[in-house]
Specification:
The chain is α/β, with parallel strands linked by helices and 145 residues long. Helices cover 22% and strands 28% of the residues. A 7-stranded mixed beta sheet has the order 1-7-6-2-5-4-3, covered by helices on one side.
């Protein structure tokens, strides 16, 4: 599905649609979503919208320097933890394993959103849900999943 977002409100609607689609997926492991796109294409904004819909009250910022941020959830959409990873600064797939990543993958109530997944693609499961982000204009972003 392809969308064109021209505002934060539209991005939130797209994020809600995405959550509605993935909430019906059943798995014995975490749901891992790769967020692909250039700098400024909307990956963090989309993640913030997902977090807000899932009930996160605190301000969500990109984990560029800390690599990973974890948020406890109330079970909305069957998720109990949102894990936001920014792999931009990682040099190899092996580095993600230092973050307890293998254990996180085994928990089916985890939703793991990964910015720059191509940097650690070897460590990710083959069944990776992908969202592509494109910078269209100053206030327009393309979102495809």
């Amino acid at each position: 599905m392809k969308f064109l977002s021209k505002s934060l409100v539209e991005t939130s609607k797209i994020a809600k649609d995405f959550l509605n689609k993935i909430s019906s997926l059943k798995s014995n492991q975490a749901l891992i979503v790769g967020l692909f796109g250039d700098l400024g294409s909307g990956k963090t904004t989309f993640t913030q919208a997902v977090g807000k819909i899932l009930g996160i009250k605190e301000v969500m910022t990109s984990p560029t320097f800390v690599i990973e941020k974890r948020y406890d959830l109330t079970g909305k959409y069957n998720f109990k933890k949102l894990i936001h990873i920014d792999a931009y600064r990682l040099e190899s797939s092996k580095e993600i394993l230092n973050l307890n990543f293998e254990a996180d993958l085994k928990e089916p109530t985890n939703l793991i959103l990964i910015e720059w997944p191509e940097k650690i693609i070897e460590a990710l499961p083959k069944k990776l849900t992908k969202i592509m982000f494109t910078f269209v204009g100053e206030s327009e972003r393309g979102i495809e999943f």
